[in-house]
Amino acid sequence: MHLEFEKPLVELESKIEELRALARQRADVHIEEEIGRLERRAEELCDEIYATLTPWQKTQVARHPDRPHFADYVENLFDDFTPLAGDRRYAEDSAIVGGMARFRSYPVMLVGHEKGRDTSDRLAHNFGMAMPEGYRKATRLMAMADRFAMPVVALVDTPGAYPGIGAEQRGQAEAIARCTESCLALSVPNIAVITGEGGSGGAVALATANRVLMLEHGIYTVASPEACASILWRSAERASDAAEALKITAKSLLEMKIIDEILREPRGGAHRDAAGMIATVGDALEESLLDLSRMDADATRHHRRGKFLRMGRDAETEIAEF
Fold first, then answer.
1. Which residue among 41, 105, 306, 318 is buried most deeply as judged by most CB within 10 Å?
2. Residue 296: which residues within 8 A CB-CB, separation 6 or more?
3. For 21-30, 96-105, 173-182, 246-255, which range has the lowest pLDDT when averaged over its residues?
């Protein structure tokens, strides 16, 4: 799958593949120099395209189905992952997956959203949109992590919490609020990584962390651009305008101190080099865990709460001075 703005790059890469196929079929044809020239041009074009992405284009990249999923991070970064299911109240929710694991030298509690890959998998995981029981399960696992002094690692990739009638009847808003409260109350370090799409309270419930890392082409927003456009302009067709106004990109969020670090993606986005992206996330997680592990329980809670209480204060000061 390729995105619309990648079309010139895809056409160039197709031409390169055709020349490679010709070179394999015809030993008398010497076009290695031309292939090399086109490969260099493809790299330059890729850099040019991804250096100037609009917020709406970044939204499309963040949603690309070939980006690494929760399952990919588990398989390549974590050992001895033991999934723990159910909220002990109502049901199991597959949109949020969690359990104990070992990350390099650290035992951790791992939780995160799983969107699924093919159609059946996406339906099974409800496209990463969690029900109340998913957030109550996350709350239960965080309480367990606190009890056994295990750092919490959250991998966030969701368009938002499920907005259906059943979810609302079972207390969706309360479940999200309790999960956010649990994040704030942890005496152990917690780290959140926005791996793709961080949508609304469904993302905040897991991302209220000591340290929030975000992939370069991810998005983190109070509402999806389509939903925002439908509310403001009564038309989802103005989603690109909404994406611009919402300040949803990693660069904007870092400037506003909503996130703590941007993780650079491989050339052309994480969907072009999943292994490289996963390795980058792993190194960033290890660095953060090492740094945060130096704090005791009180300092950990104070650090986290202070960070979120400070959000927006600089802007308020500037307005007051103005």
1. 41
2. none
3. 21-30
Q: Give the Cα separation of 64 and 39 in Å (integer).
A: 24
Distance of CA 289 to the CA centre of its chain: 18
Q: In this structure, are strands 79-83 and 96-103 parallel, antiparallel, or unpaired?
A: antiparallel
C-alpha 179/C-alpha 171 separation (Å) is 12
CA 163 to centroid of chain Cα atoms: 20
First to last CA, the chain: 48
- The predicted model gives 116-139 an average pLDDT of 93
Distance (Å, rounded) from C-alpha 22 to C-alpha 30? 10
Cβ distance 221 to 256 under 8 Å? no
How many whole angstroms separate alpha carbon 158 and alpha carbon 165? Answer: 19
Mean pLDDT for the stretch of residues 8-25 = 81
Condensed to tens digits (0 to 9), the pLDDT of residues 187-234 reads 999 999 999 999 888 999 999 999 999 999 999 999 889 989 999 998
pTM above 0.70, yes or no: yes
Please choose, from the candidates 182, 217, 181, the residue with its C-alpha nearest in 3D space to the C-alpha of residue 197: 217
Residue count (the chain): 322
Helical residues (DSSP H) of the chain, grouped into ranges = 7-25, 32-51, 55-62, 70-77, 119-124, 132-147, 165-169, 172-185, 200-207, 225-233, 239-246, 250-255, 274-292, 297-310, 313-321
Half-sphere exposure of 175 (CA within 13 A, CB side): 25
Half-sphere exposure of residue 90, counting CA atoms within 13 Å on the CB side?
A: 15
Q: What is the distance between the alpha carbons of residues 154 and 269, in angstroms, rounded to a whole number? A: 21
- Residue bearing tokens 């703590």: 260
162, 172 Cβ separation under 8 angstroms: yes
DSSP string, 204-238: HHHH-SSEEEEETT-EEESS-HHHHHHHHHS-GGG
Q: Give 268's DSSP letter.
A: T
Q: Tokens 């991998």 identify what position?
A: 155
